[in-house]
Amino acid sequence: MIESIPVLLDNDDPRLRRAWHPIGRSADIGPEAWTTRLLGETVRVRRGGNRAWTGHGMREADADRIEILDGSAAETTERYGLVWAALEPPVAPVADYPEWFDETYQSEVLTRQTRVGAGIVIDNFLDVTHFSYLHRQSFGRSRPVTDDGYRITARGDFVQLEHDTIIQEGRRNSDGGFGERRIATYTYWPPYICHLQMYFPTDGARAAATISCQPEAADSTRVYVTVIVPADDPGLDEQVAFSRRVLDEDLTIVSRMPDPRLCLSVRSEFHTRADRASVEMRRTLLDFLEECGLARAADTEAVPA
To answer: Which fold has domain 8-302?
Structure first.
């Protein structure tokens, strides 16, 4: 049954004030004031020195702390090569992933801006079926990607998608055949973080990438991708360039959508079996927004008249 009135998530929904959002790359924020937009409001911060938290074995205590200017945010923190802020006390912490604390990895952050909502960007990232038509050149996959080798886990506060597929179909592999097997694990945390872990069984290689979104205003989203490879891998720059190309392909297609907002009502759109991750993402995000709304309402009731 299709619902006639869809529930659409605005990029500046006030409930999102209770969530963590990235507001800039760690490397870009120093002792000088850093000004940006978040949920339609101006946020200003600076670092109490020049040492950013680069992760991968570096302790958080070794970095200079981020200071909030003009009371423009409630809290700040640093993760994944990014500085994060919440306009009101957040209902949940920024999720941790293992590569950030592992000195055997290195990373770099790239960024882009788009007019579509943050929810649309994350939803698109979870859609593995578009490899064959949107990323045909990048991933070397021409045959349709199905939900074979596709497994979903939804735990309430996160959604995990495991996908086993073949990419680079025209490339000869070390076994003498063609194509490269990739086992990918996507983990989504609300509101706008998705971590991708990649394992290539043929040669045992591993890599990762984290996409996170800053809802700047109703019509603007800044997208960050933290590209992660082993510390002894000389191909970080190459992987960053590849990730930038893939992100640009994604943003090109979503920018054509007639409405930049994410539809949260699952029954307002037609979904197939391959959309299971997107459906669970919407349910998890809805629950998170409800928690944020209840926290805001409780604070309002606690304020004396």
So the answer is: Naphthalene 1,2-dioxygenase Alpha Subunit; Chain A, domain 1 (3.90.380)
Q: What's residue 144's pLDDT?
A: 56
**What secondary structure, in 3-state letters, does the chain show?**
CCCCCCCEECCCCHHHHHCCEEEEEHHHCCCCCEEEEECCEEEEEEECCCCCCCCCCCCHHHCCCEEEECCCCCEEEEECCEEEEECCCCCCCCCCCHHHHCCCEEEEEEEEEECCCHHHHHHHHCCHHHHHHHCHHHHCCCCCCCCCCEEEEECCCCEEEEEEEEEEEEEECCCCCEEEEEEEEEEEECCCEEEEEEEECCCCEEEEEEEEEEEEECCEEEEEEEEEEECCCCCHHHHHHHHHHHHHHHHHHHCCCCCCCEECCHHHCCCCHHHHHHHHHHHHHHHHHHHHHHHHHHHHHHCCC
pLDDT tens digits along 256-269: 888 999 999 866 55
Q: Specify the pTM.
A: 0.89
Domain ranges of the chain: 8-302
